[in-house]
Task: structure prediction
Amino acid sequence: MLRHDLTAGLFAPVELILIEEDDDQSSLTYVRPSSLMVVETNEPLLAAARELDAKLQALAAKVTATKATGPLAVLEAAFKIIPGKETAFLAYQASVVPLAAAQPGFRAAYSGPVRDTTWVYFGARFDSEEQMNAWHGEARHRVIQKSAPNWWTALYLRKWRPRCRAKSSAIA
Result:
């Protein structure tokens, strides 16, 4: 974007707003980047901005898709990693994702370091609370949990269910 026009940087990163609504839903709203970034004729910039529009629209569609038949269940964890073990822990943690993905009801997993800290975040989503709890108590996962003293000194764990479904809209 910036290689075509430096002023396009005024509108990066792209901003979104997520609003909880009264009808047990939420809305995701954003302004199409091409409508902000291209103020003068600049075909390369327009092409790049439209590509960003398409990526943002695909992201909004993915985020607001509703596939579960029941309430989605989310497990979130944050680990305060022993200094010097961050890289090894991230590699070790990556081995947990295939285990979670093999469980019935698995929807998604995401993880990564928390910026400017020794904390690492991990989240997993399942179709139901029962499926999430089954994974959390699964024998091979328990082995991983018992290795905790080798990696971290503090843990934050949260299980929850989103209350609402989402829809998206873009402003031209």
